[in-house]
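Q: What would this chain look like folded?
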Amino acid sequence: MMSNAVFEIVRLLVMLCAALVAAFVIPWIRARMSKDTLETVEEWVEAAVLMAQQTMWDKDGADRKKFVLDYISRFCNGHGISLTAEQVDILIESAVKEMKLGGREKA
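A: My prediction, written as structure tokens:
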């Protein structure tokens, strides 16, 4: 009879641990992966903006921006990353502003 009680306690603890993992650990991992993905895209946007600035100096800003939008869209599609055009636009504008301000300091 005692082994049944111990078994039930262990079973309840396992169920509790599984519920905690499902409720907290999995969303944390997904959030972390999203942050890492966003940081990767930000780095590629910064590189594409710099490349467009250096290689397309005879083009106007709209042409350079279109180039970066197309480049980042292909990058995201190739890596299974889903970003809206508005999100990419914000990242581009941020990278351009950082470039004009002399870049940001990396910690």
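The helical segments are 2-55, 61-78, 85-100.
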